[in-house]
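Why should sequence recovery work at all? Because a backbone constrains its sequence more than one might expect. Tight turns favour small or flexible residues, buried strands favour hydrophobic ones, and helices have their own preferences. The token representation captures these environments compactly. In the example below, the structure is given first.
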């Protein structure tokens, strides 16, 4: 046990205080802080959008002053129709944010000219105001009773009541699932690369003369797991610091258009994430360690790691699918497959589709798979870590496993 602790301490120190780890941790922290900081100060200095308004002599009046009062961060100003070509050039160059062209026809027709991205909220507000002006003109001409017209135009009220509204969890699920994918893929490859580089440099011959090879594998996996958890807490620290500084509003936080409601970030969610992340990492780490032990050069890793990378990517894609269709057959079945369940089952937990029975069963299957893979990979590692003849082929790998089981 003392030898294992000594090796673990060595690998942990080597991993945590490696130049690449320290630099990446600092960079991650300041990138997150920078994103929220830039967004915060950019909002303070954001100017109102400058929109040109062209009216083609329509038979009703549009009060631009009242229209501007009802719009947020937008400044509408009248322009002549013969200046349209020049105004389009201004939009293209960025001097102007857009053009509203109110054409002379009945019913009203609006052309919204913009450079790349439309402001749907703005154009909806403008069209509503213009439609109101047109309605008032029609009422005046037909001498209709305004109250009756208003009653006829009153929209049908739609009251939405979801039995289980999970949209507010999408942002958290996406963030945590993507983090899990990145950490497993990145730190898993770090395990394989570390083992392969020790073999290629023959450093491993010196270490195994004093420590059992299996101790080396476990110590390396646990040390890199601790490094991964440390970087996860650094990310959480960056978010916490940004929140305390008031650089982001917890109610308006979003990622790729998906709202992140921090009220859904309960202790149960955090504990579930950590449990599935740790178990998923251990399972994949054993696979990465096996690949690292079966090659003699780091150049041979890419072909061996490809199947594992495909598995992790499949887990990510199925996890993303579970956001929008958590009850589909492929999602439900995948939640019980150990290589997929860390990401997929956690997604189902967040959207409220995984009950305690499913959670317990998936955790049991994960733990059993880790014990099975531990036995299998330990045989491969112990019998392959001193192999320098090149990458082991599948036939040779089967022979190594058989030999290890017989022993």
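From this structural description, the recovered sequence reads:
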């Amino acid at each position: 046990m003392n030898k294992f602790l000594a090796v673990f301490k060595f690998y942990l120190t080597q991993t945590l205080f490696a130049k690449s780890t320290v630099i990446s941790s600092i960079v991650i922290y300041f990138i997150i802080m920078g994103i929220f900081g830039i967004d915060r100060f950019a909002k303070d200095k954001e100017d109102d959008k400058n929109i040109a308004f062209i009216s083609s002599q329509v038979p009703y009046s549009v009060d631009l002053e009242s229209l501007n009062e009802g719009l947020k961060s937008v400044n509408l100003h009248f322009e002549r129709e013969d200046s349209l070509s020049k105004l389009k050039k201004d939009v293209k160059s960025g001097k102007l944010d857009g053009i509203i062209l109110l054409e002379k026809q009945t019913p009203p027709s609006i052309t919204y000219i913009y450079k790349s991205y439309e402001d749907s909220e703005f154009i909806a507000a403008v069209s509503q105001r213009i439609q109101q002006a047109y309605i008032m003109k029609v009422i005046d001409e037909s001498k209709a009773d305004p109250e009756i017209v208003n009653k006829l135009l009153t929209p049908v009220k739609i009251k939405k009541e979801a039995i289980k509204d999970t949209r507010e969890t999408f942002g958290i699920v996406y963030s945590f699932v993507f983090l899990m994918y990145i950490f497993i893929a990145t730190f898993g490859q770090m395990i394989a690369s570390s083992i392969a580089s020790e073999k290629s440099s023959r450093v491993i011959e010196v270490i195994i003369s004093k420590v059992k090879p299996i101790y080396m594998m476990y110590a390396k996996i646990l040390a890199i797991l601790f490094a991964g958890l440390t970087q996860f807490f650094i990310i959480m620290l960056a978010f916490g610091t940004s929140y305390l500084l008031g650089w982001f509003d917890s109610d308006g936080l979003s990622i790729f258009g998906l709202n992140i409601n921090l009220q859904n970030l309960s202790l149960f969610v955090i504990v579930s994430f950590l449990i599935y992340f740790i178990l998923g990492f251990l399972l994949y780490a054993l696979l990465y360690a096996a690949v690292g032990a079966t090659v003699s050069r780091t150049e041979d890793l890419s072909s061996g790691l490809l199947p594992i990378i495909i598995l992790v990517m499949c887990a990510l894609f199925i996890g993303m699918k579970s956001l929008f269709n958590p009850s589909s057959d492929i999602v439900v079945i995948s939640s019980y497959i150990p290589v997929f369940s860390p990401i997929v089952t956690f997604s189902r937990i967040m959207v409220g589709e995984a009950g305690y029975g499913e959670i317990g069963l998936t955790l049991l299957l994960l733990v059993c798979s880790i014990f099975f893979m531990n036995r299998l990979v330990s045989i491969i590692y112990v019998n392959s870590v001193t192999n320098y003849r090149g990458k082991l082929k599948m036939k040779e790998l089967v022979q190594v496993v058989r030999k290890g089981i017989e022993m």
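A few observations help interpret the result. DSSP finds 15 helices and six strands in the chain.
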